[in-house]
Design a protein that fits this description.
The structure is a single chain. The chain has about 120 residues and is mainly alpha-helical. The protein has one domain (about 1-125). It is built from four helices and no strands. The chain has helices at about 1-25, 35-50, 55-85, 105-125. The longest helix is centred in the middle third of the chain and has 27 residues, at about 55-85. It is globular and about 40 Å long. The protein starts with a helix and ends with a helix.
Amino acid sequence: MDIILILISSFFIGTISEFIYRTVSYKKLTPPQITNIQMYVFSALFIYFLYPLNLIFPIKAFMMLLFMTSIEYITGVLYFKYTGKMLWEYFSEKWNYQGIICPKFSFYWLVIGLLYYFTFVRVLY
């Protein structure tokens, strides 16, 4: 039952977050892309399974950062490979890698992951 709650909550949180972020960024109502939302779902599942592990918290946080940045990179690369389009582009961001990932958005991913870890996942355990 917890897995279903994780899937549903991360889908809705991801959808709402993407909708708000895209709408503010583009200054018009912009629906989220399902490809982006899958990153929230995979990340939430990872955090759910990471939570009970007997690791010190800084290691867990680093693992979250690494996993979520990797998911963003893999999704971005695969989407570009199969469609020829970029889901997002970070070329203007400092220290970006191939315009697909950058420290600024990796930090945002970490913050989102930590919020999810300490609010939703913590309640389930």
